[in-house]
Amino acid sequence: MRGEGAAVWGLALGQTLIYAGLYYGFAALLPDLLVATGWSKQMLAAGPTLAFLVTAVLTPFTGRLVDRGLGGEMLILLPILGALGLAGAGFAGTPALWLVGWAVVGLAQAGSLYDTCFAFITRRLGEGARIAITRVTLVAGFASTLAFPLGHWLGAQFGGRGGLAALALVVAIGAVPVNLWAVRRLRRLERAGTPRRGAADPGLLTAALRRPLFWLISALFGVSMLSHSMLITYALVIFADRGASATMAVLAASCIGPSQVAGRLILMLNEARVGNRMATLASLGAMALASAAL
């Protein structure tokens, strides 16, 4: 990697702030939202659940936009939309408006998270993309470590509703400008001669869809993300139910980020000895043990 290093670190910061606000913000503020709204956990959780469903439905479409060279535009514009949706959910006076706000967040997530970021980097940097993506994951892995203490403080200062609006502001004034700068810089470097990777052969997807292994891997990703999302969403509530103080619960939830980064570093240092199959089985096993322990 040459001059693109600073831009990659910029995208890493952008992903950290987007994940902290749009992905982890609800979990970090759930106790405060229960107090502020008076709604049940099920009603509140229906919001981010809807967001995930909208993301899942729209991701194939945003993927096509990436293939058409619009990944950078989505990284710039969709976080703004996500911030508006998050703020709208924060000030929603009815469950219906709460769901509408989170549906907008889901639309933003479909084109502003890791998938779009990594595809944009790959198309811009070609063979240098792997190192760049690793850098992004090492930094953005600390998103939860930022979100839970920040959400705890914001909830204490502004309540659950105001806390969501404040996190929306973090995304809007933090992630959007840095993404704008990073996208422009990478595109300037591309025009200056940085190798670019072309769009994937559309026939590859058709061939993959015919293979049972493709659907098995898809199911594994779905189940693992379901487990991760449930544990993250209710982390503070789970620890409080076990008698932990609010500070201890926040500390425990904040450890998820450093643990993710540590796992990635271990894999990086043992790439020659640990293949994808072994790493996948180890990760799935660790998630099962974590759930059982809790």
UniProtKB/TrEMBL annotation:
It comes from the Bacteria. The chain crosses the membrane at residues 7-30, 42-62, 74-93, 99-121, 133-151, 163-183, 213-240, 246-267. InterPro entries: MFS, MFS_trans_sf. It holds the Pfam family MFS_1. GO terms for molecular function: transmembrane transporter activity. Keywords: Membrane, Transmembrane, Transmembrane helix. The keyword Transmembrane helix applies. This is MFS transporter. It comes from Gemmobacter caeni.
